[in-house]
Amino acid sequence: MPARTLQAENLHLWRGDTHVLRGLRWSLSGGECLQITGGNGAGKTSLLRTLAGLMYPEEGRILWDGEDIRRDLPGFQGDLAYIGHEPPLKLDLTAWENLHYWIGVRRRLGDAELQQALERVGATDWLNRPVRTLSAGQKRRVALAGLALMGVSLWLLDEPTTNLDAAGQRLVGALIEEQLARGGLVVAAMHHELPVSGAVLRRMELSAGLEAGRA
Amino acid sequence: MLESTSAVSVPIRGPATSALGAAQLMLARDIRLAFRKRGQLIQPLAFFAIVTTLFPLGISPELSRLREVAPGVLWVAALLSSVLALEFLFRDDAHDGTLEQHALSGQSLTWLLFAKTVAHWLLTGLPLSLMAPLAGLSLGAPVGSLGGIVVSVALGSVALSLIGSIGAALTLGVKRSGALLSLLTLPLSMPVLIFGARATELAMKGAGFAPPLYLLGALAVLGVTLAPLAAAAAVRINLE
Fold first, then answer.
1. What ipTM does this complex have?
2. Is B7 close to A29, i.e. CB distance below 8 A?
């Protein structure tokens, strides 16, 4: 089976009067990680949301394995994980209950698998506590456990190391490297350096919706 | 422009959850959440009980007068209670980002929102229909009519939840959306109010109340067919 590919073709996105993305083009293959950097308002989050099919570009298209994602959007979205600034968790459910629902809606999930993923992110002692009582870093770790369990080809991560301590940041790096080793793709928007090997990492700096250096 | 030459080839995918399984998970989650946030659960029921109790105090304790207004009072109170509960239907999920995850789950968003609306009906419409006989008795409804009242409110509240889901989805991006939600939902709910009140009136008179009940059923079926589609489209627009 050929490697999975994600391509952005001449992406233009407007929000009101603001030209957020201005003709972005790039392509990424299985086993590669693209780190998007850029200042606040450069369009990193908009790019990730556009790649996830949550925002519709006014011009250009996104190709997944050479096909426009709009041809089978639910199919494409079922094969990606998008984690935004805030972990998508219900505060009144426990970490366990959150993942049981969040991942369970996508794929069949065994209790042992869930337990293992939560243990890996260091949630053993608090997996049955309501998320409301967890720290921001602990919530982020629950989201990472979800990410690891999702079993999808494409990860779109917005500032995945926010609120994490050094060990948590190393965990993000390890998870990304495992995803890439499986042939998956990762696009991550980050201000800081991603803790992964330089061999699989490519960088793109966004500036006012343009790849820096392109006019 | 970035270009790639890598050729790693491992598709990664676990066995997908069935649509029915996803809906069951959604129902279980929303019911569990409702019992952990009891305020939201009790609020519409308390409103319904208070409104139907205040009317006899405000009009007259005379049963013959109360019987005349009972169908209208019951249905207006049920309608307003239903609207009160609608504000929470999608709002919390939109705020914490889980609504976005529904859209990205690979499951049909229409189907998941339908499951959410069913959970909403089980948590508000069904309890309202079970409370309706008590409210009916306080308004002088004969004991023999209580079955008809329960059935009509149950069926009508299905239609109200479905119609309301469209309004709740359309007003997701609006701060303090309560007033706008009422403005959108109440006019669309008029047929439910009319047929529901008529069914209740006929049941209280001991007459056959099947015709308005059939019409309520037709509205509920129409709602099942169209409302989740419209709600999903509105949610997708709001997620942009």
1. 0.89
2. yes
